[in-house]
Amino acid sequence: MFQGENMFRPLRRKKNERTMDQAKALLHSARRGVLAVNGDAGYPYAIPINYWYDEDAQRIIFHSAKAGYKVDALNASDKVCFTVYGKESVREEKWAPYVESVVAFGRCHAIEEEESAKAALIQFARKYYPSEDLIVQAMERSWHGVRMYQIDIEHLSGKEVQER
Questions:
Q1: pLDDT (tens digit per residue) in 3-55
Q2: Pseudo-torsion of CA 130, 133, 135, 140, nearest 10°?
Q3: Angle 114-128/132-142 helices, nearest 10 degrees?
């Protein structure tokens, strides 16, 4: 069970709930997710991002520029929601597709210690780059403009719905 688990609503339709293993598998396999933060004037701000899921630490790692709306929102409030969806399938007996999704709530902060941030970036990059050489080249080219963030997951749930 995650920290703060009793603060979050249970899934209303239990028949759609995925197991924790299924939810974690989707977090590992999806390539992009949507990060929702508390934006200006109380409006939510949601943006698609690339990410890496660190299952051992129960964290979601992503990178960002060092300034911008997302950074300002994270500095104002560390509470975030992160969503991924995928594994769309059509079953013979049904015409409309089934889609799985995972929603994670947590606290997000910049990884301040440089060596930890670099290690997180390398792990993140391994998900997207085909070789270590390309990772090294990309880090040399852009490290100075990157800030690494981590979401410490407090609640995680997965579900599957049929889109009809």
A1: 555 677 666 666 555 677 998 999 999 999 999 999 999 999 999 999 999 99
A2: -160
A3: 130
Q: What is the layout of strands, in order, in the sheet containing 98-110?
A: 44-50, 32-38, 79-89, 98-110, 146-162, 59-65, 52-54
Q: Using H for helix, E for strand and C for coil, what is the string for 101-128?
A: EEEEEEEEEECCCHHHHHHHHHHHHHHH
- Using CB atoms within 10 Å of the CB of residue 148, give its burial: 0 to 12 exposed, 13 to 18 middle, 19+ buried: buried
Q: Is the dihedral of CA 104, 110, 113, 114 positive or negative?
A: positive
The identity of residue 157, as a single letter, is S
What is the pTM (predicted TM-score) of this model?
0.86
Map residue 66 onto helix, strand or coil: coil
* Residue 58 DSSP one-character state: T
CA–CA distance, 97 with 159 (Å, rounded to integer): 14
Tokens 């999704």 locate to: 101
Say how far apart CA 123 and CA 73 lie, in whole Å: 25
pLDDT digits (tens, 9 = 90+) for 57-99: 999 999 999 999 999 999 999 999 999 998 766 666 666 777 7
Cβ 62 vs Cβ 110: under 8 Å: no
